[in-house]
Amino acid sequence: MIWHILKRELFDHINSLRFALTTFIMIALMVTNAIVHLQKYADQIQAYSKNVTVSTNKLKAQTRLYRLVQRGPGELYKRPSALSFIANGGDAFLPKLVIDDDSWTAGDVKSIATVGYPETKQKSKNLRPPGVPLDWVFIITYLFSFIPILFSFDALSGEREHGTLRLCLANPISRSLIVVSKFLGILIALVLPFTFAFLLNITILSTSPWIQFAPADWARLGLVFLIACCYAGIFIAVGLMVSARLERRMSLVVLLLIWVIVVVFMPLTLGTLAVKWSTPIQTVHQFRATKREFINNTRTENSRKWSQMKRNIDRNIAQKDELLPMLRFKMEWVNFDRNIREDLNREYLMAQIKQVQQARFVCRLSPAATVQYTLESMAATGLNRHRQFVENVQLYTKRFRQFIVEIDSTDAESLHLIGIPEGMSNKPITPEQIPIFEDKLTLRDSFNSALVDMLLLVLFAGVSLSGACLFFLRADV
Fold first, then answer.
1. Predicted confidence (pLDDT) at residue 50 exceeds the cutoff of 80
2. I need a labelling partner for 120 at 20 to 30 A (CA). Which of 131, 241, 426, 437 fits?
3. Given its phi and psi angles, is residue 246 left (phi above 0), alpha (psi -120 to 50 degrees) or beta?
4. Is the pLDDT of residue 214 over 80?
5. How far apart are CA 232 and CA 226, in angstroms?
6. Total domains in the fold of the chain
7. Which are the contacts of 206, defined by CB distance < 8 A and separation ≥ 6?
8. Rounded to whole angstroms, what are the CA distances from 386 to 83, 362, 383, 390?
9. Element spanning 98, H or E
10. Is 90:133 a contact under the CB 8 Å cutoff?
11. Are the CB atoms for 370 and 364 separated by under 8 Å?
12. pTM score, two decimals?
């Protein structure tokens, strides 16, 4: 009996005007998305390749260890994601991480490179993409929540008004199976045009020489497809839940109100409210002022000690043993300054990320926000991707500095005082020895960052479908 109901539901949906319009809209949006992304991604990858080449050439041009310490690894760029057509993720305003160029000189003491974190270009505390980019997040978030409402608002109330529901219940079939049959019928009717548009989009993108999908990318695309189906299932179940208790017209009104609140209002409002009620953090200008004051005070104190040490040493004595205390102090000064600046930068970055995470935690009450964060993780864009990029940079910076220490330790004539020119090896190094930064992201990293959101979507779908069954069990037919 369940297969009979399922086939009837699917046949009715496929032969409806709603199905034809859904197919047309999905194909039009997916084709537009692919065409726009082809040109956009080509420009991004060309700019990325050019910037990386320039930065790498500058790094390999350094032949002295001290120049590597003073300059650092240079600018480190985040690789554009080949799947950014799925989710923009706010990458337009999330910065690349660079080496801080806030250098200083105090007499013959010069600072060394530190890791800095540029500010974002957007004031949004929820890190939502500026405007409404035509990516898969937009298509799935809005279409896969609105169209299920149009298919399900009269699935039960319409048959109840026409009397066919009572006739169906006269057969030996439970109400739960009727709900499940209608749920699957609507879901399949939505998945069919989405699958065709999905494959058409990927086919168009595959024609570009700039986009080469790796096996991990195909796995991500498969997970995105399942996530979209789960998200659509949530609103199908909600539509059946409302349709089970209300009449046809009232059901449509209530579902449209639910859609506006859950999909439009909550993601835009909850994040702002969460930030407003959370513990405030320093603004960028306040942070810079605090950092500058702290560093200047430290530098003034060390400058005073440095001048005193120089006065206490006889200018006529130039023995290395006599100068070692001054050189060690000089080394400790520049390294302490670097560590302090990096700690301050890291603490401020973590405070910003924590605030955004708090806003997103509240926004997850809306399935629309949850599916956005999930797709961003799968597409390797957005906040989670940026955090992983920062972690990659920190690991590389540690490896880069360890390389300098190891090379310096092989020179018996060096004083092994890293950070000052007099205390480091003067032997030239070859460009091939210098470690180069590679921005990589594995499928496991993306899956782990999206796991909680995926489980939350499954929970939403399960609760909604259970609610639809319960409402229909208690409904009068």
1. yes
2. 437
3. beta
4. yes
5. 10
6. 1
7. 213
8. 15, 21, 5, 6
9. strand 98-100
10. no
11. yes
12. 0.86
Tell me which amino acid residue 337 is: D
Pairwise CA distance, residues 87 & 379, whole Å:
6
Boundaries of domain holding 92: 2-473
> Measured between alpha carbons, how far is residue 183 from residues 136, 239, 337, 388 in Å?
23, 10, 63, 38
Q: How far is CA 418 from CA 73, 175, 305, 425, in A?
A: 16, 76, 20, 9
pLDDT at 291: 83
Tokens of 69: 């310490």
Query: pLDDT class for 322, splitting at 50, 70, 90?
Result: low
Question: Residue length, the chain?
Answer: 477
Name every residue whose Cβ is closer than 8 Å to that of residue 351 and which is 6 or more positions away in sequence: 281, 282
The answer to whether the beta carbons of residues 409 and 416 sit under 8 Å apart is yes
Three-state DSSP at 105 gives strand
What are the CA-CA distances from residue 273 to residues 90, 269, 283, 355 (Å)? 20, 6, 18, 12
Q: What type of residue is 256?
A: L
In this structure, what token pair is assigned to residue 31? 């084709």
Which amino acid makes up residue 51?
N
For residue 115 the two structure tokens come to 């890791």
Given a cut of 60, is residue 12 above it in pLDDT? yes
List Cβ neighbours of 49 (8 Å cut-off, separation of 6 or more): none
What is the pLDDT averaged over residues 408-420? 89
- φ, ψ of residue 430 to 5 degrees: the values are -90, 150
- SS3 state at 13: helix
Collect all residues with Cβ–Cβ distance below 8 Å to 75 and sequence separation of at least 6. 51, 55, 96, 98, 99
At 346, the amino acid letter reads: R
The whole-angstrom separation of Cα 238 and Cα 153 is 9
CA 475 to chain centre: 43
